[in-house]
């Protein structure tokens, strides 16, 4: 940095805050470090006693923090998001659509490992809404080497670190199993929970079939819902490993690809996730077998899986296995999900 006359500072970048003190009125910075001085600023600077200023010396090998912040934003931002205003080398990413936030975690770590820059975000694989803050970025020094920002581009890779997968409208169908419900001995209290969960996403229910505990009858019900045009099929009841619980076997009998039967999540250990490819039209239809806990627990594995299904973000066996860390819901008296550790 160098010291120059304030009258000669137009176009230069301040290397320190300029504070104004008016007794009983204010004590605050009128200009922040990194501010680019304009002609209009000169009288103000002189009025606070600044006849000389320390400014950044222009160097073709360096970026100003705000210039570098724009580069960092470009590394981070995918479609369906926009930047906040730049301030002191800081830019935030704001969501433009409802959807599922996806993060290239390896690239995020790689950029953060470079030093002198940082990216802090919310958790990936969780829902976001229009206007949500997705991440905050900052260039830490006032100036940073251009070469370092080139390394940041390489570390970030060819794709954005953050993307949003918008939800797709899905026609869903319910297959409710269990002789006690089928024969009217007890009231179906499961389906209202499913409808409430799906109401948070673009969806349309196209039908519900009640069926007893016979495997062949459950299979026929699932096949009917496929033929009816369901994009998503949700099966309830008969999901444990007891001999008379036949729903998993019926789902397997459709020919669906089973991703996982069982998950390291409580509540929700007996969840079944599968994908059925319809030979008639090539559609890939998720078929979910929901454990009984979904009916009565505030939050379960269904809350972790459903947003990904609605965004058509394919779930893998590894994804399910990784849910073990953070997969224990603490059943808090006041539920703050998703602003808690469940599923993270």
From TrEMBL:
Cofactor(s) listed: Mg(2+)
Any GO molecular function: metal ion binding
Record's protein name: Molybdopterin molybdenumtransferase
Known role: Catalyzes the insertion of molybdate into adenylated molybdopterin with the concomitant release of AMP.
Boundaries of every MoaB/Mog domain copy: 173-311
Assigned EC number: 2.10.1.1
GO process annotations (BP): Mo-molybdopterin cofactor biosynthetic process
Keyword line: Magnesium, Metal-binding, Molybdenum, Molybdenum cofactor biosynthesis, Transferase
Source organism superkingdom: Bacteria
Catalytic activity: adenylyl-molybdopterin + molybdate = Mo-molybdopterin + AMP + H(+)
UniProt-listed PANTHER family: MOLYBDOPTERIN BIOSYNTHESIS PROTEIN, MOLYBDOPTERIN MOLYBDENUMTRANSFERASE
UniProt similarity note: Belongs to the MoeA family.
Assigned GO CC terms: cytosol
């Amino acid at each position: 940095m160098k010291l120059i006359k304030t009258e000669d500072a137009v176009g230069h970048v301040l290397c320190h805050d300029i504070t104004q003190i008016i007794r009983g009125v204010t004590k605050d910075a009128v200009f922040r470090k990194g501010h680019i001085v304009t002609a209009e600023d000169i009288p103000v600077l002189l009025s606070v006693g600044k006849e000389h200023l320390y400014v950044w010396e222009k160097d073709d090998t360096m970026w100003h923090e705000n210039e570098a912040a724009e580069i960092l934003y470009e590394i981070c931002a995918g479609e369906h998001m926009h930047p906040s205003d730049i301030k002191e080398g800081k830019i935030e990413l704001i969501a433009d659509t409802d959807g599922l936030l996806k993060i290239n975690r390896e690239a995020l770590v790689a950029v953060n490992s470079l030093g002198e820059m940082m990216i802090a975000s919310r958790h990936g694989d969780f829902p976001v809404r229009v206007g949500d803050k997705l991440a905050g970025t900052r260039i830490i020094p006032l100036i940073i080497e251009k070469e370092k920002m080139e390394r940041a581009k390489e570390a970030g890779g060819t794709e954005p670190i953050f993307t949003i997968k918008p939800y797709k409208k899905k026609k869903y169908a319910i297959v409710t199993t269990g002789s006690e419900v089928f024969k009217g001995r007890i009231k179906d209290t499961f389906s209202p929970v499913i409808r409430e969960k799906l109401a948070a996403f673009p969806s349309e229910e196209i039908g519900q079939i009640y069926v007893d505990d016979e495997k062949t009858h459950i299979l026929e019900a699932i096949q009917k819902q496929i033929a009816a045009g369901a994009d998503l099929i949700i099966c309830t009841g008969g999901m444990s490993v007891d001999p008379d619980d036949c729903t998993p076997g019926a789902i397997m009998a459709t020919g669906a690809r089973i991703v996982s039967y069982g998950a390291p999540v409580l509540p929700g250990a007996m969840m079944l996730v599968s994908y059925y490819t319809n030979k008639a039209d090539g559609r890939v239809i998720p078929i979910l077998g929901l454990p009984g806990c979904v009916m009565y627990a505030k939050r379960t594995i269904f809350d972790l899986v459903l947003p990904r299904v609605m965004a058509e973000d394919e779930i893998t066996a590894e994804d399910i296995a990784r849910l073990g860390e953070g997969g224990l819901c603490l059943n808090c008296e006041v539920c703050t999900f998703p602003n808690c550790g469940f599923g993270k």
